[in-house]
Structure formats: structure tokens, C-alpha cells
Amino acid sequence: MSAGFQPHVHPWSLDARDYPADAALESRAAFLVRYALLAPSYLNAQPWKFAIEGDEVLVSRDPLRRLPVADPADRELLLGVGAALTNLRVAAARFGLAATVRAEPEGVDLVARVRLSPTGPIERALADLFPSLTARRTDRGELRDEPLGDAQQRILARATACDRAHLRLFTVDPPKAALAQLIYESTVERMADRRYRDERVGWLRPGDGGETDGMASDKAGLGSGGFRTTTWVTRNFNIGETAGMRLAKLARANAALVVPFSGDDAASLLDAGQLMERFVLTATGLGMRCSFFSLPPNVARRPSEILDLMSADGIPQVIFRAGYPKARACRPTPRRPLRDVLVV
Ligand SMILES: Cc1cc2nc3c(=O)[nH]c(=O)nc-3n(C[C@H](O)[C@H](O)[C@H](O)COP(=O)(O)O)c2cc1C
Q1: What is the CATH topology of the domain spanning 10-137+331-343?
Q2: Of 3.40.50.280, 3.40.630.30, 3.40.50.11690, 3.40.109.10, which CATH number belongs to 150-323?
Q3: To test the ligand 1 pocket, which listed residue (292, 317, 318) has its Cβ within 8 A of the most ligand atoms?
Q4: Is the Cβ atom of 31 under 6 angstroms away from ligand 1?
Q5: What is the distance between the alpha carbons of residues 306 and 290, in angstroms, rounded to a whole number?
Q6: pLDDT tens across 222-269, in order?
Q7: In this structure, what are the phi and psi dihedrals at residue 271, rounded to the nearest 5 degrees?
């Protein structure tokens, strides 16, 4: 790690004025990757790798950062990589580069190529999201139960569809209550699995400022009992019932629950992740915060009254909530340094 690198601070204190506008495209691309790695990922595993080849950024999954128990088919991994793609596209647009994403369905680890071009068309709406890249935080605290205004709804509605995925917003019962129930069931089911709890513990961190990935134990929903207590309790007790009730309660008080729907192939999941992040960045720009509720694969696919209520095409890949925060401060999470994720 480079001297003075603080993983909670440094990755988020990017200054657009440092963009090497006159340097070779490779150097400019490397600068853009700094924004890509600020994307959210399940348990902050940061399951991505980047490489620069000519005018392309190659984006791969990092097989060492998979979660075989929680995410055996890399569904959530690809949502996270899709989010990183959106960040890359937003940063590219801000600095006047068109970014064309091409999914690589045949790749083993390689999932997408992003071609950068100084002459292609720039999507203004993407560039406008740039300030949200460093402002976004996953906020697991209470949100205000305040409905979206018409203007906000109109702005957010622009970020709800793309080629292979779409988002649906749920603002009222009965679907919102049904989704809260689904979150409860998912949590109970996951936490009952000792292997899942062990895997989760492997990604919990003391949160002392030194680590570069994973989730600080005080964000794990067990209060501030400290790292050792949190990991011990998570490993040895099935706290699914309590955790599920707490999450279901959080899921009910907010402006909207949002669900990305898509197919299960890699290209569709990348699209779902891109769209999810576009929505989250748009919401961030409107002063809102989001947090995620992951869905175990079998729960998302189980035919149920809940899915009937949602009556949407495709598979619900994750649920997230969006709303106005009650408490303003929300500290940033760590990231790995650029040199660990970018292969030159
Ligand atoms: C696909 C996906 C699923 C996630 N699922 C959960 C979840 O179930 N519970 C949770 O607290 N956070 C969840 N997160 C949020 C991550 O934990 C969070 O992005 C990560 O810790 C980094 O923090 P940041 O988003 O504040 O940068 C999820 C994120 C993604 C992209």
C-alpha cells in the first residue's frame, strides 16, 4: 500500500482537477477506474479487476472475491460489477469521453469491455451524476417515511429501464409490505445456514481504518458490541429472526423500495447492476440515501404471491430502499488501492 494511503478516506477524496486531460488515453482511463471502484458491492467484497488495453478498459470478475455460499451463481457479484461499469461511464462522460460497454458473454472472468472515445457522443445525463460518485453511501440507518415529490419521481423515472433490465418502484402497500415480508424470509433463511454465517464473518472487519475491503462489524446490525462479539455471535447463533424483523421494519419506512428485474445471464445481470447504480446515483443527487437487501437465489425465484403482486417480467435480483436520511453523517467505507485492482 502506498505511504499515507487511508482506505476509508483516500479513495473518496478524488479531485476532478487531477484528471490528466493531456496525458495518453491509458492514463486517463486509469484515472476513471478510481471512480469505478467506489461502486457498492455485496459485503464490500469489491469483486472486480480492471485492465487497460489501448482504448478499452477490460472489466473482469475477481474469482478470489466470490461468495460461493451466499452467491453461488455470481448474481450479486455481477450486480456489483455492473454498478462499477456505471461509475466508469459517469466519470468518462464527465471528462468528455464516450464510453461504450460491450458485455463479454464468452469470457471466463472477463465480463465487459468499455471502449473510450474522445469523439463519440456524450450522454449529458450521465455526466450530471458525477458529484454523486463520491457522495453516495449505503445508509443502513432509518430513513424518513416521506413520499417522493412529483418532480423527484419524474427525475428518478429516467433511470428505470435499459436494454436487458428494468426497475420497479414500490411506494405503497400491499406490494411494499409484501417485499418487507420477503426480506424477512430471506434473512431468516440465510441466517439459519451456518455456512452462510461463516462466510459472512469472513468479510466482517473491525472498522479501525486499516482494512481495504469488507464490512465494519458495527454495520452488521448487531449494535456496537465490538468486532469480537459481533463475529462470535454471528458464527454461533442463529439471529435470523431478530435480524429479519429489524430489516423488514427498515424496509417499510422510506420513500420507495426498488427492485431491479432481469434475466439471469451475465449480460442481463450487468445491465441490472448498471441500472441499479444509475438509480442510486440519481437518488443521491436528490439528497436521498439507499441501502440494499440481498435475496438468496431460491427466494427470488420461488413462485409466490409476492411476485404475483409485483407482476413484473424477469427475476427480482435484489431489493433496495431509497429515502431521505434522518441522520446526515454516514462514514465512507474502505476500498482497495488502485494498484490492487488495475492490471496495467
Ligand atoms: C448486489 C448488492 C447486494 C447488497 N446486499 C446488501 C445486504 O443484503 N445488506 C447490506 O447491509 N448491504 C448490502 N449491500 C451493500 C454493501 O454492503 C455496500 O455496498 C458495501 O459495504 C460498500 O459500502 P458503500 O456502498 O457505502 O460504499 C449490497 C450491495 C450490492 C451491490
Answers
A1: NADH Oxidase (3.40.109)
A2: 3.40.109.10
A3: 292
A4: no
A5: 22
A6: 777 899 999 999 999 999 999 999 999 999 999 999 999 999 999 999
A7: -65, -45
